[in-house]
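User: tokens in, sequence out, please.
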């Protein structure tokens, strides 16, 4: 809720357009690895900019995996996801 207007703040939930924006920011290696993870039910959830690169977060049900800009997949990331 906004303190000034008592209206709910815009939600940050993703629409199709937002996922396309995330996809465009991923490296080729991330896209390749994400396509491999898709075979197991993982889908791109979001991406976060870390310094000069993006870290991709893929989700399958409530399980997350991360893919760094070099395409390295971490199936047990230590990031706190809300």
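Assistant: Sequence out:
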């Amino acid at each position: 809720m906004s303190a000034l207007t008592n209206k709910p703040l815009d939600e940050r939930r993703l629409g199709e357009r937002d996922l396309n924006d995330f996809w465009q920011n991923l490296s080729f290696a991330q896209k390749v690895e994400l396509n491999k993870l898709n075979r197991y039910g993982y889908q791109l959830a979001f991406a976060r900019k870390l310094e000069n690169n993006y870290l991709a977060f893929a989700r399958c049900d409530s399980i997350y995996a991360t893919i760094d800009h070099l395409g390295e997949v971490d199936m047990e990331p230590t990031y706190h996801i809300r």
